[in-house]
Write a structure and sequence with these properties.
The protein is α+β, with helices and mostly antiparallel strands. Helices cover 23% and strands 12% of the residues. The strands form two sheets. A five-stranded mixed beta sheet has the order 2-1-5-3-4, with helices on both faces. The chain has a two-stranded antiparallel sheet with strand order 6-7.
């Protein structure tokens, strides 16, 4: 077993476990878009960033690819981490404003504006479709083409693949395929239809992480029935 400190708590996890797996085991939620427990970790979306290291020396790493080590000090909910996640969500909103999952994350993290020009790419290059096709379907019918800003996903030589069985796994696992609901701001890049406008209690406890999901702050503030 490996001993480490997670959000101020002394914990023990099995060797070979990633920080994301350790956090999930102890009931700590870390958002992801490119992770699936049945597939190899990829670390593309960067939403699972956490702080690793002693205070003042900590650095940000992706939790899904970082293996646990003896004596690690990890924080998953610091202001630095939250600010980084908000920026990443904002970038994804500019790329894929039609994604329900990304819109839900924006509401959850209180992202209320997008300062980048919308692209409507409909793909965040998370690689889930590529990995599920190769690792689960044993097909390798799709893959990445080109690199950098020109990178995209397609079939080999951009022709119809004879290995594709039309199973639909790529669409099922895609985090941006499910369209957003038509909320109060359906014409805008961000809808915030599910934004909790009640101040969350976690603000009162600095970097402490709230384990109430969904948040019940609004329920507690309701007037009792007469």
């Amino acid at each position: 077993m490996v001993n480490m400190i997670l959000n101020g708590l002394d914990i023990s996890v099995e060797e070979g476990t990633t920080l994301l797996e350790a956090a999930k085991f102890y009931g700590i939620d870390i958002p992801t878009l490119c992770y699936d427990e049945t597939l190899s970790p990829y670390g593309a979306c960067r939403l699972c960033l956490v702080e690793v290291g002693e205070p003042g020396k900590a650095k940000l790493f992706s939790a899904c690819t970082y293996p646990v080590r003896e004596g690690l000090i990890v924080k998953t909910n610091t202001k630095r981490v939250i600010d980084a996640r908000k920026m990443i969500i904002e970038l994804y909103l500019a790329s894929c404003p039609s994604s329900k999952k990304i819109q839900d994350l924006a509401s959850e993290y209180g992202v209320t504006e997008v300062r980048f020009t919308p692209k409507n790419d409909e793909c965040i290059l998370c690689g889930l479709c590529v990995r599920v096709c190769e690792e689960q379907m044993q097909a390798k019918a799709i893959g990445f083409i080109d690199r950098g800003v020109n990178r995209y996903i397609s079939t080999p030589f951009e022709r119809q693949s004879e290995d594709c069985r039309l199973c639909g796994a790529c669409m099922y696992i895609c985090p941006v395929c499910q369209a957003r609901c038509q909320g109060p701001r359906e014409e805008e890049t961000i809808c915030n239809a599910c934004l909790n406008i009640s101040p969350p209690c976690l603000e009162k406890y600095d970097e402490a992480m709230c384990y109430m999901d969904p948040c019940v702050a609004c329920e507690l503030e309701k007037e009792p029935d007469e």
